[in-house]
Target: Large ribosomal subunit protein bL28
Amino acid sequence: MHCQLTGREPGFGNRVSHSQRKTRRRWNPNVQRKRYWVPSLNRNVTLTLSTKGIKTVDKLGIEAVVARLRQQGVKV
Model:
């Protein structure tokens, strides 16, 4: 999964054991589905956001974030 606002995606790398054997692993971002009420649309909008994305919505406001996502071509 990835964040719709910040674009955060899983990171990939190696799991290294004590004997230095390397196997592939991934680091998943803390992505959550969050529902917001958007007064201009008069409905709820569900976004898939990382925790940094949630803080950004709290700072800028949901109206500005929805406008930005629509400008990027994301269906909201």
Summary: The chain is about 30% helix and 35% strand. The chain has one domain: 11-72.
